[in-house]
Structures
1.
Amino acid sequence: MSEDPVSTRVGRGALVQSLSLEDLDLYSVEELGERIASLTAEIDRARSARDRKQASKSAADALFSRRAD
């Protein structure tokens, strides 16, 4: 019997939290640089998603506020 992939899904924010628990002393200077680059790329991705959602929300708010007039 195969395991349901949905039941093994990690909770929202759990991966980011687990990153903060890692012992960074185990990483080399180069590995820390790679980690910073990866985390920066993820921050940029999250900001982009936030900005898209904010633009959609602002457009919807503007549409519905015009209808109320």
Note: The longest helix spans residues 29-68.
2.
Amino acid sequence: MPKLTETLARKVPQTKSGTDKHWDSEVRGLVLFVGKRSKTWYYQRDVGGQTRRVLIGRHPVISADTARQTALGFALEWGRGAGKTLQIGAPTLAVAMDSYLARPKLRSEAHRNTVRQQVSIHLKDWLRLPLDEISKVMAVDRHRALAAVPSAANHTLKYFRTIWNHARRVHDLPECPTMAIEWYEETPAGTIIDDLTEWRIVVDGLINPIHQASYEFLLFTGLRKSEAYTLEWNNVHEDHIHLPMTKNGRSFDLPILQHHHEILAPVRGLSKTWVFPSPKGSDGHITNPQRLKWSPHAHRRTFATVAMEAGVLEEIVGRLLNHTPLSITGQRYVKPRLEALRPAMETACAELLKKSRGKHG
């Protein structure tokens, strides 16, 4: 490692992609980051078992001599323990993710779990990297590496973008490197349950009563999978279900009927907390019930489709599904009462019972 003189700092070439690091041979921790458009001085050391880095400034605004003197000052302060209490440089992806997931207004626990799972699986090797060391080339390459499942590629890197932008509110970060990604086109499957008689036979044949009740409940409420699986008994009332937090970031009340209580009857008493407890005997709720040929979201689409075919207005179906209205009037002014939605729920359930010809029909 050479001594980082002013002459060397001027002559070192810009990179074509990514970032090169040049460490000083005299002052341990002084480093010059060289990218495509800039050269930046940092001071970096291991403090308290973690790598910490603090920005000194851009070259040539900050000369090599000034950077060296500043680095010596940091070395003295950190040697006395001051560095342990400082927020130094850009956070690592792991730290930034924890900060984002700790937001009290984050829309749902399911979203937290999904973000952590996808980042931990697909971006595992990035977790210990400071955000400003993750380049556009890395983002594009990782997106391309996940191309076998386009939706997973898009969602993973968009979760990364969300974490980056949250960190950018506090830290001096450039625009997220995902700006270089060309997102894959995603076409929703749009699958519904065409033959509800077949669905009834399959669901009635499930051995596990928790799984059976969960699929029936999904179909006859139109709830999202995460909303149904995490439902707690204290939010199930005689005439409605209360969801304290949903995907769109707000609470939601859904009218329910006697038929819904009949669906839930076999699982009452299995858990004090969860409506659909884990069959494994843990204190949690179900996450992956026995797979059917129809996805949980196909049940939600079927509820909506059958309701509209039975004459329920599209806007009312959207209210039952807790979709955010597109118009300002719908978002800010129209707040239908729970009882105003009950006739639509009755119509949808009656038609679903008719089409499924189940034991309750």
Note: Residues 129 and 341 are 50 Å apart (CA to CA).
3.
Amino acid sequence: MEYLGPEFLTWLWWRAETDPCFRHADGTEVYIHFDEHLEFRGERAAARRTVLRAGIPGASMESRAALRSGKSLVAARILMARGEDEMRFTLRAEELGVSGLRLPTPQGETHEERLLACLEMQETFVEDLDLCFATFLTLRCTPAWEAELASVRAWGEAPSPDERMQPA
């Protein structure tokens, strides 16, 4: 099921631009933003690789051009926010692997309190990422997926924010 990771990552990018809020059952909101790094691959892997860095690459002409040319989104730097807490990480689609996770600075008087706070933040991070993936899978495994997929495709074909700002 190699397609599932890139499909999830592309869907998450679309959600980040169209409806970035995910809600836990208790009402807690989690926001997603794609940040500073997108990596695309074509059919021949490295020979057809596009890496976009700095600024907001998701808004660039190059990011949409990569999608339109049939490349798959295989890695992205993501900012996930819950309340005042922000976590940044890179998500690799092929294995759904997380790297470079940066958590908020843990608060506490003692080393043990800070360690416990850090562990709790890691648990929160996993819960929030699981929420995003579960939301995707719930849609992906139902008839509602066809309408969702049509929306993602239309978004991918539409001009990027950078393209919309170009003079005619």
Note: Residues 4-160 form one domain.
4.
Amino acid sequence: MKTIHACAAFAATFALGSTALGGVLQLESFENYSVGSGAFEDLNGESHFLENYDDHTVVGDNWSVYFTNTGGTGFTDGDYHGVTDYTGGGISDAGGYTDGIQGYQMSDTDGMVTMTFDAVDGATGLSLDLFVRSTGWESSDLIKITFGDTVLLDTTGLDIDDAAGSLGITEGAWTTLSGAGSGELVIEFASNSSTETAAFDNIQWTGVPAPGALALLGLAGLASRRRRR
């Protein structure tokens, strides 16, 4: 009987420690989606919510993407955008994707795209891996990432080539951005060149223990101490 109780206490402690104590509540690494072949195409150049095209994944189970027309051609000319396993543009030199063999790429949007992830219940923190290609960025290009009211990155009005260091990112390498907050994760991106590429991977929503979880952990620890006496 003591062995059974000991196992139960350990299981409770392990389960709470892996999910409640700042653990990962939800992970998006884009591994379970089709990458498609060739370029993504959308003949609707007006502002609208994007939809998946053929086997290209642009929107997923827990995120949507809205295209805002800013006077450009958008995706009517076909562009490499969405879930991908492509590792060119320096991604292979940076070690490939950070969680698996796929990630999400944004490039040559000729307009603004806004990628919005649903809020995750209980999440109080978030981290994601960002790759910014080393190329000729311009001040009109944009990468902005917010988690609720927390701004993780904002290049508005900045030339990424000049401002990368002050923004805490390195072109041609993966950078992990993280912050506390809650609510929706929103990624905004604008560029007008196929070489102006950003990629995302390994998005993790994390949480903190509820009071009841802490109490249960305390009971598990107390039971463990009593058995060691």
Note: Residues 25-207 form a domain with the Jelly Rolls fold (CATH 2.60.120).
